[in-house]
Amino acid sequence: MLTSLRGRLFLGLTVIIVLTGAIGGTFAYLWAYSEAIEMQDSSLVQIGSFALTASIRQSGPVNGVDADSEVAIVELGAAPHGSAEERQLWRLTDGLHNDRYQGQPVRILLRTRPDGSRFAVTQRTEIRTEIAGDMAVRTLLPIAALVPCLLLVTAWVIERSFRPMLRLADDLDTRKPDDVGLLAATGAPRELRPFLGSINGLLERVRAMMEQQRHFIADAAHELRTPITALSLQAENLESPDMPPAMHDRLEALRSGMRRTRNLLEQLLALARQDTAPPAAGEAVQLDIIAKGVVADLLPEAASREIDLGFTMVEPVAVNGDPLALMTVVRNLAENAVKFTPDGGSVDLGVYREDGMAVIRIEDTGPGIAPEDIDRICEPFFRGRQPSGDGAGLGLSIVKRIVDRGSGSIRFENMTGAGRSGLRVTVKLAVVGYEAARATS
Ligand SMILES: Nc1ncnc2c1ncn2[C@@H]1O[C@H](COP(=O)(O)OP(=O)(O)O)[C@@H](O)[C@H]1O
Ligand SMILES: [Mg+2]
């Protein structure tokens, strides 16, 4: 059972074309064959009429006729004479006959002149059928040439007709997972419109659902923020100088729990904001200045753990985007690098321009990410194989959303090489014109 519509169409049309060719060819052949036989008969008759009036009376091949057709005149005289065969011929009536002459089947025309002498015009049957066959075969040539041409044209037309369908499938296949943009109906054949309508309806519903879900997360995070803040404040107020040390430790645990929860809420909100906010108009943002600010913020923490945090390369680069979002990107990546680098390690940042893209590169000397985790590392709440104590695994998913929305790319690689280990994260964003970067620096 052929499941491809294209395959079925092509097979069906091939059968039709080949059958038509075969039937048409057979009829053309038969018709041309009998036509050729008749034509040879009529040329025998013409030669007969000509010989009737000609003065030369001599047996032999007829000149002026194609030598291959082997037409000959046999003089039989006024009364039967000569060989038994010639006598036998003499007895035939005037007109066309099938008979034998010189041991071979022949087509033969007998005529009697006014003076009573008779002659025969002969042609070997074998030659006649050969000539008729040749002529009939020639009528098949155009059909034989036409069939493959028709098949090619059919395949081409089918291919072209199905192209819009394949294009639509391609459009759906190559989409990002969260892309629920509607399919374009322009240029699509009329037969596809109902499907397009249904698919677009479905996409519309999925989009609404996604929207609803994002709003729910944003609302929930927002609603939780107020009570958590209040709880944090109350926990702060519990602190008193005459508290026993055991109590103090428990209070500290409570507070750090509160901090983590607040952090998580902030990140959830940030994620929801990235999902729900309409794309920002975007302004030229100095990436290098943002990176310097982030590094300055992280320096105390890095210093306390003897981590060498700094730039290997920094040049003025401007990208289009929301300054806060871009700061979130650099901050999350740099924070991770510092967090996962063991004490005494180093974290190197690079901000530069390369092939018309703005590049942020962050390298650390931490454990890197297990290769099997790299593809999933940007999924929300995914924390890899060695999850650190705090952190909910939302940081990188926020980074990824922001980068995706800015049509940028992010890549994680484990550095393996002489004396170097750790993670290298490379973010590439479209750079604002070189001149703009210069003017504002
Ligand atoms: N620089 C890094 N070195 C090693 N692992 C990292 C690095 N950055 C991120 N990871 C891994 O990716 C996971 C997800 O990171 P992230 O989304 O920032 O979540 P969080 O920092 O909240 O745990 C981390 O839990 C960690 O396992
Ligand atoms: Mg993080």
From TrEMBL:
SUPFAM superfamilies: ATPase domain of HSP90 chaperone/DNA topoisomerase II/histidine kinase, Homodimeric domain of signal transducing histidine kinase
Keyword Transmembrane assigned: yes
Enzyme Commission number: 2.7.13.3
Superkingdom of the organism of origin: Bacteria
Keyword list, A-Z: Kinase, Membrane, Phosphoprotein, Transferase, Transmembrane, Transmembrane helix, Two-component regulatory system
PROSITE patterns: HIS_KIN
Keyword Protein biosynthesis included in the entry's annotation: no
Subcellular compartments: Membrane
Domain Histidine kinase: 219-433
Main location class: membrane
Residue stretches spanning the membrane: 9-32, 140-158
Reactions listed under catalytic activity: ATP + protein L-histidine = ADP + protein N-phospho-L-histidine
Name used for this protein in its record: histidine kinase
Organism per entry: Bradyrhizobium jicamae
